[in-house]
What we know:
Oligomer: single chain
CATH class of the largest domain: Alpha Beta
Amino acid sequence: MNPLIILAGPTAxxxxxxxxxxxxxxxxxxxxADSMQVYKHFDIGTAKPSAELxxxxxxxxxxxxxxxxxxxxxxxxxxxxxxxxxLHQKSRIPVLAGGTGLYLKVLMENFECxxxxxxxxxxxxxxxxxxxxxxxxxxxxxxxxxxxAERIKPTDPSRIERALTVFYQTGNPLSQxxxxxxxxxxNYDVHLFVLTMDRTRLYEAVNxxxxxMIKKGWLGEVRDLQDQGIPETCKPFQGIGYAQLNxxxxxxxxxxxxxxxxxxxxxxxxxxxxxxxxxxPGAQTIEVGPKETPRTLKTQIxxxxxxxxxxxxxxxxxxxxxxxxxxxxxxxxxxxxxxxLKYKKPKAACEALKPLVSNEANTPQGIxxxxxxxxxxxxxxKYKEATTYFQKSLTALPELEDYTRLExxxxxxxxxxxxxxxxxxxxxxxxxxxxxxxxxxEQLRARALxxxxxxxxxxxxxxxxxxxxxxxxxxxxxxxxxxxxILQAGRLQETEKLPSRAYLNYRKIFVEHPNHESAKVxxxxxxxxVRSQALKPPSLTERELNKRVxxxxxxxxxxxxxxxxxxxxxxxxNRKLPVEWYFNMAKAYNGVRKRQLVVSILxxxxxxxxxxxxLQQARFKIGRTLWNLGHDGEAKKYFRKVLETxxxxxxxxxSRFYLGRLHENSKQYDxxxxxxxxxxxxGGSSSYxxxxxxxxxxxxxRTKNFGEGIKQFQKNIERWPGxxxxxxxxxxLAKLNELSGKKLEALKTFATLLEQFPYTYYGVxxxxxxxxxxxxxxxxxxxxxxxxxxxxxxxxxxxxxRSLTEQENFHYTRAITLSEMGLYDEARLEAxxxxxxxxxxxxxxxxxxxxxxxxxxxxxxxxxxxxYRDYKQPAGEKDLPVAFWKNFFPLAYFDxxxxxxxxxxxxxxxxxxxxxxxxxxDDDIVSPAGARGLMQIMPETGRRLYSAGKGxxxxxPETLFDARVNVSLGIKFLGQLTERFGNKGMYxxxxxxxxxxxxxxxxxxxxxxxxxxxxxxxxxxxETRGYVKRVMRNYGIYRRLYSDAASRQENNxxx
Length: 1055
């Protein structure tokens, strides 16, 4: 039988922490056996495992139900057995942890009364108990089940209700079912461990725990639950502590008396738990001594397990768990193999796959592993063995037939069988026109034809493919392969003595694809043809130059752009340079930080083209650059020139805004207000209107004219309701009220902001402020409607609301298959095609983002959700369901984050929030500046982090694309920043984005600013200011979505 570990014991003995230690060692998951923790919102009083523990190990049956839902021991058994079965399927030993004895009993033993109660009958009996009282109904129970009635107190309505329900529903007394209990463990090899503690120490632990719960804000939690409209009659409100604190809120009991009553009732409950578990057959006792820790308790449990024969038979030798984790699931093994293949380690990939292909060859997972094994062997040039696997895949894995035929074609070419390769690729292209590997098949077919001596035909097919894949109806997914096809055509043309045609293809790559890896090859080929043909190559046309330079800019290759722009100038001689040349030069100079030259080149443009349509654009760019250089006076002249000479309102609005900012920057507040007010008087739809209006309020705040600031922010809110700037105005209106001593008014405004814009940076900050102000203000002054957490979210659509078309299903099936095999790059392309024809309504974007996330196509998931969120407008965000936000803020790579985050004392939610901003969870991304991977680490920074303290010279910048390496190094860097600047989120983010030296400079410059919100608004770099806000928002939303309310109440500071 399959093993099942159960960790039980009285409350306050450390079950949760020990269970996590045990589950981590066994690489498994935890199932909660607690009748109260299963309910949402009831967090502090039910002692739910902390956010940190739940981040380390997955927990089931916590936060699973709404407070009004019924949940019986029968329900628990059904759900728990489903989870246990799933874990056994993954070769994992489930760990059950909890103190609800009845739940454990019905699961372990053949407990026949576990059938579900009739809800109508149960409600009727419940109403009778409420009407007649529990004592009267207990007397009725004595008549029908005297044996059972002896075991139940007349003051226990829940157990009376259960016993009467069983009798009236089945016709048999509950005690009769107890007598029938077989005490035979069902289906599982159960290992029950009961944590026990000296009675005196246990009671001390209980008392201490209750005090800690009160300190965490238990009373506030009960008040919040009432504010949310959760009825007092629901089951979790009847739990120990909630009933007493409810009376405190109603002024029916003093807090001090309530706390003592909670301690007394909890001690009694612990005593009952001890009695219950002592009777459990097969229980092994673990004494929790004064010096025991969760880790030492885990070691004791594993030691007891190591000698258990049944566990050894079920999963090899359990004693190995002391050293090795449980073997990975088949999906984990394949994903490891795919990762090794991606990073060119085929031998390691083969080793990862051997258990699957040898032990499960004919299972679905074994067949998929066989396809991967074929790739591994092919990479090692073991073509005969690889062919065997691929031939089997042709029939056993029909959903990937085109992928298999491509692999066979590669092998045939490698073995010199061009004819077979041509036949495979021709079959693929003819029978799978919707395939996502069409470009690769075209390349292989051309190589096969060349091998057959049919080079002209190969060139024809390539040129036809290039035209088709770049035409009006071309798919963007194929664009990445176009340079390779062009390069291949050029090479074949050279072999056919067609240098002029080859030259044109190489030139096309040089101009249109300068950042592709084939560009260097093309450039060398161009030089070779020029030398061999004694040609003078024609200069780039103006259009070609602009196209090439614009693409160089995308990869931040500013120095190369400057060289080519200057070469073009030299070729032009005394001829007039084109307009775009000046603006490209200005952009290139700005990219290499030569801002004074930006000013010079644009001044030259104005001199050459005094009446050109881009004149105002040039003046504006000069003004912005001079401001960045610190030449505010000169900058003002250019902005004034724009204002005085333009006839377009857009330029008038822009120049007025920047003139206001320049004066504000130099603390000339009156002229700043004048320009902002003039801009507002213009009206219209300029994006600068709301910015100017907010800055008027900000000036009032900075000059301590709080009354004027309050009026301005209120005016802004009335003029532009429901925009993203509404959230910012609400936040600073609340801040001004708070600083003016109007704390209750501030609380109400923060609460309004939280309710209307909960998923913005300011909404996240507002939640923190609401929590703090509710603690500061007297309880009787806080309106009951003031809430924290989620506003009432909308309902999630149930699926796509329609069947998939044949084409959608074709790509969907392949995306899922490839994802489960760890082939995420291929899965990503299939997922894109699968969702391309969907309507982008709520059900459509949720379905699409689900598929993208399964395919690790996180950027695509983000983009489709971004589009829908923008469609809803800021005011409509709050109505989107939680499922939308969990897809929008996924726990991506969380299994890779947890351990290094714990090692460097960095919150894993903070890391996920940072990665979301840095890379949108794209592990292959490279920034224009060259930063790589998930946490966007520069190669030299990676080298320093990788080699620090080890003298390791094996570092390869390419390893930064390995998610494990990137995350580990990025968290290490955050740990170093934490040691240097302390655990302050905004300091870490400024350092991470702009550099530690910049933070040190700003800490000196803004040493007088104590308010963190003011500090962030004062960050001089707009990019860094926005970055800090976005990551802080991400972090706050991650904690709100995935951590328990108790943790948020206790550690509510995103800062």
